[in-house]
Amino acid sequence: MKTRRLNHMEKESSASKTSKPKQRRRQKNEFSVDSRVIELASKGLNISGLSSSLLELRNRAIPKGLHSQFLKAKSLREKDDLIRAIIDAQTEFGPLGFKFFIKKDKALERSRKRFTPIIKDFNLNGLNRQMWQSLCTYSNVIFHWKMRNNRELEYIQVLNPYDVEIVPFLNGQSLLYLRVPDVIEKLVQGKGNSQEEKLLLRSIPKKYVEAVKGGIKSSTLIGKDRKMVLLSNSDGEYWLIANTEGFSDRLVPPSMTSIYASVENRNMLVDGDFSVAYLIKNFIMHVKTGESITSGPKAGSRQNYAETKHLKALKKQFKMAGNAMELYTGHLVNIDYVFPDTKVFDPEKFTSPERRILRWGGVGEILLLGTGTNFAAGFINLKRLIAKIKCYREIIDSVWQAFFEHKTIRLDISKDHIPEIIYDDSLLKEYSVLVREMQSLIDRGALSKQTALLKAGFNPDVEETNKQEEMDKGTLYMPTLTSMMPLDQALEKQQKKEKGEPGRNRQEVTKSGGTSVGAPENPRPSTS
Prior knowledge:
20 helices; 45% helix; 10% strand; extended
């Protein structure tokens, strides 16, 4: 007869059953360490030294559902200082100098009349910034617009990923359900609305009202308690989806999920600093009264112990303490102020979680704070940030291109005549390198002086006015060879200001060795 050897878990289980037959049954919601260990062992995992409690704490910091992950990213974007600084750095460098450009050409006149009002009236530059915020925070962009008729736009907006549910299909299409905004829901459910609210209520689409009153509800992502509406092309509603993984028919988890545990670790360290600061602010006092008799005939006696009435009187005295306090006691009272070790405030403890967070964002301390190891490390970090920004630009540019090429927006205008998107990369370059590039392009006639002034931070119209005023004031602001005026024009301008005196020849050299316009040259060689 074969016998089966019991493992140590089964032995403990059988022993507990025999010794405690009336043991309390575990509640369903109570976490069972044994069950967790058995589950891991069944998967072939090494369970030696595994802390199930710590594992549960880490898992608690990482949301499981896609909707919960988006809400977690939203909360960190709004409340966490480091996450906000990283996203702000990306959204400040990325759309820098963004603008829609249409060439001034007669062939593009129809394109300019069609797209310019849309760009201005619907604040597309502001929507571009919203797309950057969404992409950097949630790794997804949902661009949505509605047509009032075949040619007239009603509104354009960037949807929040935590407010939608997208059902993808095999043909690249998808169904998009939108959560009814709380404002509309309250307005529909409200009673005794004012005249203005009633007028606004009439403009709300019928399907939103039906959803609030018990129509379509969410099926999986957001929860069945949230009111949802289905966006449809037949209602003039269109949308575009883009994300960091290249899908156009579904949403992807935010990349921030990889650092949720690190953020939680950093938050606990911050909470520790806060609790220690609170401790110092409120002064932990340890008040001792009474003493033990350790020698003599009364050794071990409680004669000198403090009685309850004495402790209550002393406690009452300290509760009445203000900014200053005079306290008179006997020799038995001893007051100690307990202070924590200053090592608890050592910022080195934040290094590990913050490095993991900064690696996710692609932004180093040298860019956020101006501190770092050396110039080479900062240069490499800047290049990584530039690469990430250019990747994000490609994603957002694809959304704009698809939007302008859409049949409801482009109408019968050629795809070659849609607006172009340009950026200003001057801040992504080292200043001395930028100056040399501009000078080289100006010398070769490839860069206009107006653009050079704009890159340098000057207004070309203001500079043109100032230059004209200087010319009109005469010799006080006489142009020299170092100005941006060509030499021939400078010579001609100077001859007119010399009261009719003929100007000297351009090649004539004065006795001082300089030309007539004051440009120094090599002195005339000596004949001796």
